[in-house]
Automatic annotation (TrEMBL):
Official protein name in the record: GH3 auxin-responsive promoter
A Pfam match: GH3_C
UniProt lineage: Bacteria, Pseudomonadati, Bacteroidota, Cytophagia, Cytophagales
GO molecular function: acid-amino acid ligase activity
Domain GH3 C-terminal: 400-493
Domain of life: Bacteria
GO cellular component: cytoplasm
Domain (GH3 middle): residue spans on this chain: 298-361
Organism, scientific name: Dyadobacter psychrotolerans
């Protein structure tokens, strides 16, 4: 049976047809109008006069003029907490069946509403992703293989009037009935709450599957592959899954993991990037000649963009009052923006926390450039996560090492600041030399950093540690697997606590 081929046929049936891409700007105008029409009689819609906005000639401009920008704390504090208390028609019509728990890179769980309309939006995006596999020039026998989706547990937390879990678990627990036969590890294993036990069960059954495609966050996929290889005493994962050809990645940048991941393979895979967050399925890579991802302009999400600079974003990574906000038709390519979304889950002008850059405005293609709070600017160095990653790729080449995880902070040395880095490393080059090399490449590639190094930023320290310490810390302070990510930038107090943990576990 041509398994993925049948799945693509189902996906085409589900989405109606293989469609040409809509005009992104016009599609976004339509989406905003539909969102406002649907929510105009909710408490939020009445408070912000959605009916009046809909009567205006320029709905987008009126919407931006009258509705404030929200981060999670404001959205939850003003509105979403009522949903958790059982109220209905708060920011979206009806009650609330699900909440996505998202710790992200913070220590406390966020409760993100997930409506039936959002689940439908995620399913549609997933089906488009599957149908789009045809664009990657895969051989015919690929479409006879199975798909392994490694997400969080589908065994959701039962509350009085709703269920809670991570978005990947909620999505997998709401797959169409016909999809159940197409994906692995299957619902029985996916229901297992304990991460280690779930991966062990996957390893035990791996020989019975013919996997052609894997989907999941890189760090946890890599741990799973290592467990399977160890359990079956293999040389690499292709010894047991010879037809594995595709890896759809997401959640974090893949490039830091490529070198170590490919050590587990007999040959490189086709890598396809995706952008699924707790708040919705934002974008997918649609073509093989770029790692940029195309936004879904007509799938229940209205996107806005705030220039990511000191004039528009404060030191805490929050959009400043009165900041310039652009719609999709107004953005420019190669400029970093803070992403805002309004959605069919009742998020309104919501700051998701990511920064993006357009690589092709006409195709609405973006790359994720970092997080608003993963931006090191305590002493004016203006270092983004992308620039940090680029610097570490240079270090990998210079010292022939693999660096997948890192955490950095600006910390005091007496009355001055230095940058302190904890880097995972598979070898043990000299910490001081690595610090000097990293400092040199950052100075060469970031003029603001170079200026800061001549003024308030007085030094750079690096401590190389085993990558397992990052994952142990994540497991003990949060939980392993699922959507949880290692933070890249920390405030000094939190960073010093992490440093204590490192010392205790070295």
């Amino acid at each position: 049976m041509a398994i993925i081929g049948e799945l693509i046929k189902k996906a085409i049936d589900f989405t109606g047809m293989i469609m040409s891409d809509p005009d992104p700007v016009e599609a976004q105008k339509k989406v905003l109008k539909e969102l406002l029409e649907t929510a105009k009689f909710t408490a939020f819609g009445k408070a912000y006069h959605f009916k009046d906005i809909l009567a205006r000639d320029n709905i987008i401009a009126e919407f931006q003029k009258n509705i404030p920008v929200h981060d999670y704390d404001k959205m939850h504090g003003d509105w979403w907490h009522y949903l958790l208390e059982g109220h209905q028609n708060v920011t979206w019509p009806g009650g609330q069946g699900y909440f996505a728990l998202s710790s992200g890179t913070t220590s406390h769980s966020k409760h993100i509403p997930v409506t039936e309309e959002m689940l439908a939006s995620i399913r549609k995006a997933g089906m488009i992703e599957i149908a789009n596999l045809k664009a990657f020039d895969l051989p015919g026998d690929f479409f006879t293989r199975q798909i392994l989706m490694l997400g969080s547990s589908t065994n959701l937390i039962e509350k009085e009037d709703h269920k809670e879990g991570e978005i990947s678990g909620i999505s997998a627990s709401n797959l169409p009935a016909w999809f159940g036969g197409f994906y692995k590890p299957g619902r029985e294993i996916a229901d297992i709450t304990d991460w280690d036990e779930r991966v062990k069960k996957i390893a035990e059954q791996a020989a019975d599957w013919d996997i052609g495609c894997i989907s999941g966050i890189p760090a946890w996929v890599e741990l799973m592959l290592k467990e399977i290889i160890s359990y079956h005493n293999l040389n690499n994962i292709h010894d047991i899954w010879p037809n594995l050809m595709v890896y759809t990645t997401g959640g974090v940048a893949f490039e830091p993991y490529r070198k170590s991941m490919e050590k587990l393979l007999a040959h490189p895979l086709i890598y396809i990037d995706t952008y699924l967050a707790s708040e919705g399925f934002m974008a997918i890579q649609k073509r093989p000649d770029t790692m940029a991802m195309a936004l879904f302009p007509d799938n229940g999400i209205f996107y806005e963009f705030v220039p990511f600079d000191e004039n528009h974003v404060d030191e805490d990574g929050l959009v400043k009052e009165g900041a310039k906000v652009l719609s999709l038709g107004e953005v420019e390519e190669d400029v970093s923006y803070v992403l805002l979304i309004s959605t069919v889950a009742g998020a309104w002008r919501y700051m998701i926390g990511d920064t993006v850059k357009f690589t092709d405005k006409q195709k609405a293609e973006i790359v994720i450039t970092g997080r608003t709070k993963h931006y090191l600017n305590v002493v004016g160095c203006q270092l983004s996560v992308n620039q940090m990653n680029d610097g570490l790729r240079v270090i990998e080449q210079e010292y022939d090492v693999v660096i997948k995880e890192f955490i950095v902070a600006a910390v005091h040395r007496d009355e001055e600041y230095i940058h302190k880095w904890y880097l995972s490393c598979d070898k043990k080059p000299d910490d001081v030399q690595v610090a000097e090399s990293l400092d040199k490449t950052l100075r060469e590639n970031n003029k603001n950093y170079n200026v800061a190094r001549g003024k308030a930023l007085k030094g750079v320290e690096v401590e190389l540690i085993p990558e397992e310490i990052f994952y142990q810390w994540s497991e003990e302070t949060k939980k392993l697997g699922g959507q949880v990510k290692i933070p890249r930038v920390m405030k000094e107090e939190q960073f010093l606590e992490f440093g204590k943990y490192v010392k205790e576990h070295l």
